[in-house]
Specification:
It is a multi-pass membrane protein. This protein is mostly helical. The protein folds into two domains: about 70 residues, no CATH class; about 190 residues, MetI-like (MetI-like fold), CATH 1.10.3720. It is built from 14 helices and no strands. Helix 5 packs antiparallel against helix 6 and helix 9 packs across helix 11. The chain starts with a helix and ends in a 7-residue tail after the last helix.
Length: about 325
Amino acid sequence: MLRFIVRRLLQAIPTLFILSLLIFAWFRALPGGPASAMLGERATPQRIAELNETMGLNDPIPVQYLKFLGRMLNGDFGTSTITGDSVLTEIGRHFPATIELAFAALFLAVAFGIPFGYLAARYRGSLFDTGIVISTLVGVAVPVFFLGFLLKYVFSTQLAWLPPSGRQDVDIDATSVTGFATLDGILTGEFDATLNALEHLALPAIALATIPFAVIVRITRASVLDVLNEDFIRTAESKGLTAQVVRTRHVLRNALLPVATTIGLQTGLLLAGAVLTEKVFVWRGLGFLLAQGIEQRDYPRLQALILLAAVVYVVVNLLVDISYAIIDPRVRVS
């Protein structure tokens, strides 16, 4: 298993290297040059020259790239042109909000998606199966931002059951320890803060979970139907194994490989920043940083967020590969 993990890690290095080249080339290909693009309306010949000297943009391209790579490896992504803070500090401050939202949405999608997909396959052609298929089509077709506004209108404006935006009420005097609002209240014993954070988390998590839920249901259903038609299932049934053993040991386990891939890809998408959901619910995570960076041309922040998204995908794919090896040990030799 250790050799398998090391091999997958080594395979990820060229991916990150190529991405660093693309980011470097993109930044230097900005109209008017990097310094002019970063300064925007404040650009003057003198300020452009000063910024070029400060950032080493007068050096030869190979030297610039090596310096750029060295700064990235040291975690130095520059300073945000919006706040003046270190980009790494900004990401560290907002990343917990995105992790909290993404994993809440993923939990809902997996907890309901796999059972619903399995049951839809088991009762194929039934009214339940038809209803599930239709609901997944609706879940994929409805834009997340529209669903977010709809949820806010129904559950916040009309019913007043849940708060419409933010991570916690402004009058909650909660102690921040880890940056995870739901966890901090448990660690500090401020359980009212945790409850308040969960109430704020409910609507954005449901909105964000709709597409992953629909995708996981459909992939689980299709995968289970494929496995049910395999010869080894009929062999297991002919040997007199109980239906429970056949379903759990043979059907579900073999059907989980494509589902694991789907969950991994959805996790990467969610962690990379759910921009629309965070904008609708004023959820100050990485999506908020990304949207603000695009609007105000904060290129150091954008560089860091693009690279972070790539790292997230690499890590998630590694975890998916490890789950493959656990589910099916034959994968370890490939």
